[in-house]
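Before going further, learn to read the protein records used in this course. Taken together, the tokens spell out the fold as the letters spell out the chain. A record is reproduced here so that you can trace the correspondence yourselves:

***
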Amino acid sequence: MTTTRSRQGWFGQLLLRLHFYAAIFIGPFILVSAASGALYAMTPQLEQIVHAEELTAESDGPALPLAEQVEAATAHMGRSAELAAVRPAPEPGETTRVMFAEDSLGESETRAIFVDPVSAEIRGDLTVYGTNGSLPLRTWVDQLHRSLHLGDVGRLYSELSASWLGVIAAAGLGLWIRRARRAHRARDLMRPDFRARGYRRTLSLHTSAGVWVLLGALFLSATGITWSQYGGGNIGTIREAFGFTTATVSTQLPTSSGTTGGDHGGEHAGHGDGGHEGGGAAEHVAHGSGGHDSRKQPGTDPTVIDGVLAAGRAVNIDTGQVEILPPDDVESAWVVQEIQRSYPTEVDAVAVDGATFEVVDRTDFADQDLAAKLTRWGIDLHMGTLFGLANQIVLVVIASALVAMILWGYRMWWQRRPTRGGRRVGRPPQRGALTRAPWWGVALVLVGAVGIALMLPLMGASLTAFVVLDTAHGRLTARRER
């Protein structure tokens, strides 16, 4: 009987200690990630304000042929400029974006020239980033969210944040369920108790908010990991092993043309703007990587761009948001791909021979397997583009709630401190939960920890550090009490 009682509650105490330590040490990372994520969700509207000059066209009337717009941008850049991509104006009153590759630019960056489609006036000249061509404002916010502007070293912060967010949320759910089972009415724990004071009021705010944003936190954690350096790379490997990859359009020209061709990769694996590009399962393939001179190679002659676009529209390109990619060389085809990320998702692509306007390959989103579709939707939902403004608002609410919960968590920690002449409110998480656990409980915890360490190496390393610090602290405390 004594042994049975000593083992009761071991799992709850383990959850409490895990939740406590992870929140204390990883909380600042999640705080920065949530705050910058909320700001990122608002960047589409901010871009329209900050970059209104570049994004809007003032001329009225029919648009000029796309080749003439590209010619105006090329004249602005200089005849030696290397064309990387063209995005025709999606709606009247918007500009055409002509992007060029330059050796002086950073990885995944291109130089975008904004052209009035009616008058061919140059409206702006900006460096853009990633497959979505994010403008400087969004790029800055995205790099903050991704790496704190510290490069690859800074990406460790976002990987820790994404990895531990789900664990902290799941542990918090387990603690909430324990409290709900002891409460008279579980629904009372789903709303804050403003009648309470001090620590109990803060706990009520923290737990009730956590219940409402739990699913959102788990989703952001799972999708965020896919962009991480180490965990994301492992996820990509698993997807490839099971064949859960996104089909890409092939730009190999017919052998009869006397060419061997190559794969341009029409639907880039990278998914979005700025820091969401690159790394792990979302490795970016930069535009214009061929290093060719488009003026000297007949297959990449930009004057054929109108015919290429027309050929694509005759097949499966039926949205205004389109990107046209020139061939890597004379042995490859042009690619016309849809870039509409809002639902219904339009990301079909077609490869077109620039000499004959013959379609040599196509991919349709409707034909992708379920795993590829879920990946696409998950990425766009995480970035706030799938459902437009509603998606953005939900992300801002979830991120703001996470910020508030972290601040309430630290306040609870402060309120639980020992004070002179007072008493400690609540109890600190108890030590030694695993020593009271049954053998199968210890085995499950160890197997889970090893599995996490293999799948998410950075999280495994930080978990090991927590255990070492906790053990060292326990031994020091024991010596002082002797």
Summary: The first strand starts at residue 82 and ends at 87.
